[in-house]
Structure formats: C-alpha cells, structure tokens
Design goal:
Layout: H1 6-17, H2 23-35, E1 43-51, E2 54-61, E3 68-70, H3 74-82, E4 86-88, E5 106-113, E6 119-127, H4 135-149
Antiparallel strand pairs: 1-2, 1-6, 2-3, 4-5, 5-6
C-alpha cells in the first residue's frame, strides 16, 4: 500500500505553492497532492470557515462531502471549535459523527490556522480503513499546513 513520504510531499507542496497567498488555490493544491500521495486517503479536503461557527466544503478530492458542518457537530466541527487535531481511529465511536460517506471508518482532522491565529478551516482526511492514521500523520500534516497557511 502506497504511504505518504512526508519529506518529499512537504518539499513538493512548498515548491508548488511558493509565493501563493490565495487560500482556495492553496487548499486545492494541497488536497490534490495529499490525496494522491497515500492510498489510505479515501477523501481529502478542506472545510472553510465562512461565517461564525460554520464550516462549508472547500476544495477536495474523493467522493461527495457534506456541504455545511456547524462547529457543534462531527469531527470537523470539534477540530474547528476546539482548534485541536482530531485523530479518530473509529468514527462510529465518535459522539456526533456526521456520516458524509458510509464507507468512512477512520478520520484525521487538523485545524488550519493563518496569520494572527485566524482559523481558516480544517483539513479533513477520511479513510475506509479502521485506525488508518497515527500521531506521525497528525504532526507531519500539521507542519505542512503551518508552513503553507501560517503567513496568510
């Protein structure tokens, strides 16, 4: 099974996004690059903060996603509300999980923080495999997000 090479993908994303400040362009590029780098990633995308306490679907790769997620619901809502990474080995055991896809078994959601601590949204990665993600995934993806969005 193809697994992500974090050093390689970080360098590739840095090269592709150098000088870009448009959030949507950056999100689209990351969603594409990350999704195709790892076979565990069944759905890879962003939910953007579009109004207080509301996330709306942004650029993504994979099947359809939920269009709107309030901060009060689901794994994405928890990551946004708490501004903390959510590493969920079994989505069925997560209280209030929103099933955008019935095939999702595990999920990793990381807040996307811009300049001045502004919450831009969350990166959501779903897998149809149980317990697909670990702390290394969370840490390394978080670093890529910080490098990409931290200055905008």
């Amino acid at each position: 099974m193809k697994r992500i090479d974090y050093d390689s993908i970080a360098a590739q994303i840095a090269a592709l996004t150098a000088g870009e400040t448009d959030e949507i362009a950056l999100m689209a590029t990351l969603a594409c690059e990350l999704h195709h780098a790892d076979q565990r990633f069944d759905w890879t995308g962003f939910y953007r903060v579009t109004q207080p306490d509301v996330l709306k679907i942004g650029p993504y790769q994979g099947g359809h996603g939920c269009l709107v997620i309030p901060f009060s619901r689901g794994v994405c809502g928890a990551a946004a509300r708490l501004r903390q990474t959510q590493l969920v080995p079994d989505v069925e055991a997560f209280p209030g999980h929103i099933a955008c896809s019935s095939s999702t078994r595990s999920e990793l959601v990381i807040p996307v923080i811009g300049r001045g601590g502004r919450l831009l949204g969350v990166l959501d990665i779903d897998s149809d495999l149980p317990d697909a993600f670990n702390e290394t995934d969370a840490t390394r993806l978080g670093a890529i997000l910080n490098d990409t969005f931290g200055a905008i």
